[in-house]
Design brief:
With 218 residues, this protein is mainly alpha-helical. The chain is built from 8 helices and 2 strands. The chain has a two-stranded parallel ribbon. The chain binds fe (ii) ion (2 copies).
Length: 218
């Protein structure tokens, strides 16, 4: 079941994201009215994404990680630090400053879905990471079309491609971890992914409006 809050069904189909609700363009129009606040929130998210990849780096399933585990996590961490530097530069050029503290209720709610212990926790952590990347990817695509500031639009377009790659890396690793446990687990992981997507739809639509990457609209 797909719920369309916006008028851009074909767009999401084009970028092949699995999300169950499309963000309306009105979200970007509102968020871009406060570009420094949006960039500040965005910078914090890049920092948290880098930290998450470094934390996952040593959380591989025992006894050995999937072949590409360490390379994938280090590549994501490197990308996110580069994104952080880029966004902080954009913020600074517009007269903004990075705040010391930050909260992301969307990510916190998603993390509440994580089952604790063993490979289930690893799979859930990877899936939550994939969801955040997919939603961020969707948002960058919208921002790249809606932003009238050319420098911002260009950066958003570049980030769209990078975050899509991260989404694919995380969901691929979640499937690899499940496959290590046998056919039953490999099938169960697809059900788990579908239930996560349903949860994500509710969580994103429950976010307050505001100049944030993971807010919703009035
Ligand atoms: Fe990023
Ligand atoms: Fe990312």
């Amino acid at each position: 079941m797909r719920e369309n809050a916006g008028s851009v069904t074909s767009r999401t189909a084009t970028v092949e994201l699995p999300l169950l609700v499309d963000t309306p363009d009105a979200w970007a129009e509102a968020a871009l009215r406060e570009p420094c606040a949006l960039l500040n929130d965005h910078a914090h998210l890049e920092k948290k994404a880098a930290q998450n990849a470094l934390e996952l780096l040593h959380r591989w399933p025992e006894p050995t990680p999937p072949d590409n585990w360490v390379v994938a996590m280090t590549a994501v961490a490197r990308d996110e630090v580069e994104h952080l530097a880029l966004v902080v530069r954009l913020l600074s050029r517009r007269g903004g400053r990075l705040t010391k503290s930050h909260r992301n209720d969307y990510a916190a709610a998603l993390r509440g879905l994580i089952r604790r212990g063993g490979d289930e926790e690893t799979i859930d952590r990877l899936m939550i990471s994939a969801l955040i990347e997919a939603r961020s990817c969707e948002r960058f695509e919208i921002l790249s079309r809606v932003a009238t500031d050319e420098a911002l639009a260009k950066v958003y377009k570049a980030l769209w491609a990078s975050e899509k790659g991260h989404y694919l890396s995380f969901i691929d690793l979640a499937r690899q971890v499940a496959a290590l446990e046998g056919d039953d687990e490999a099938a169960a992981v697809e059900d788990r992914w579908q239930s996560m997507l349903v949860e994500e739809r509710t969580i994103i639509m429950n976010q307050k409006p505001g100049p944030r990457m993971h807010s919703w609209v009035v």
